[in-house]
């Protein structure tokens, strides 16, 4: 079976993370993703240094494998004409510019939808294309703050605000965009119509507040940060052992009893303070003190073995390098090695979705700036003389 999106062509006019995350997943699903980079310089992530591998930015290579690369000057009228020709023979345009940028270039949706009525334009922005903030630029840090995420991340309200360690609104916006594009492709298969898909970092942050928004909506009070604990169940958090930290997920009555058996504290079953999830949450400080006094007696490996034997959800707190070496990571091919023209071999995160029938694309390294420009120009029926003229006039790179 071919990859699910084989035959779909995506023009990725985005940079850094949100758009490239979407393009990366579409490429893994089989789409031909052509990354259109600005001239000069290309995607800003190329300058996110260090670290680098033989001069190539590790960050850029991570986000842009499996894509073809063209460097195109969209401030030149011929560059715009090249883009329009590409649109005519493509399925999706993916961009993360500020509102109005494509319109100023003369390639807004009203223009490209006339060139190709089946085109799907996916726009990823800071706040969405409507509303009072539509004209503002967006960054993950700002979106995490405004969406409420930073108010629920960290140890307590008394500590400084803390963002999630990963750029979670960027990544989630890319995943939401992917879902939107796939839905738009289904709609197009049914109706023949293209359309616009619009999502944002702000909305990507909000969707991570499901539990906390449920609490605020029901009580009128905004919950604060709880460290690693859960806002609705207990005990469900990280605990210190004799040597390290582990996570324990005793989130319902069944797993609570598993935990008591595993730590040999069945007496707590009779304690009214801990008899239900409601009571455990109400008395969470006392509960955590008791569990800490027990878990500090053995090492992490010892407890994880005991908990696994009892069927209790638990796990180590891995560093990134430890995650690389985890046998589950290896079995699921989540850390892979790809070849890049200049950098040689580099590590990348693999495809996180597996299929029983559809294939996913074999991973290729991220393109060098303009690596596939000539190849791509020929795909769109430009001849050698035209291509050389464009090179000489810096329309392409």
Structure report:
This protein is α/β, with parallel strands linked by helices and 397 residues long. It has helices at 18-28, 58-63, 77-88, 101-105, 109-115, 140-146, 168-191, 201-206, 210-219, 253-262, 277-282, 284-295, 300-309, 320-325, 327-331, 373-379, 384-392; strands at residues 9-13, 32-37, 52-53, 56-57, 68-71, 92-95, 120-125, 196-200, 236-240, 245-249, 314-316, 335-340, 344-349. It has 17 helices and 13 strands. Helix 1 crosses helix 7.
Helix content: 25-40%
Query: How much of the polypeptide forms β-strand, as a percent range?
Result: 5-15%
Write down the Rg: 25 Å
CATH topology of the largest domain: Rossmann fold
CATH architecture of the largest domain: 3-Layer(aba) Sandwich
Key structural traits:
alpha/beta; three-stranded antiparallel sheet; six-stranded parallel sheet; formyl-coa transferase, domain 3; 397 residues; 2 domains; single chain; elongated; Rossmann fold
Give a brief outline of the structure.
By secondary structure, the protein is an alpha/beta fold.
Question: Topology of this protein?
Answer:
Elements: E1 9-13, H1 18-28, E2 32-37, E3 52-53, E4 56-57, H2 58-63, E5 68-71, H3 77-88, E6 92-95, H4 101-105, H5 109-115, E7 120-125, H6 140-146, H7 168-191, E8 196-200, H8 201-206, H9 210-219, E9 236-240, E10 245-249, H10 253-262, H11 277-282, H12 284-295, H13 300-309, E11 314-316, H14 320-325, H15 327-331, E12 335-340, E13 344-349, H16 373-379, H17 384-392
Parallel strand pairs: 1-2, 1-6, 2-5, 6-7, 7-8
Antiparallel strand pairs: 3-4, 9-10, 10-11, 12-13
Helix pairs in contact: 1-7
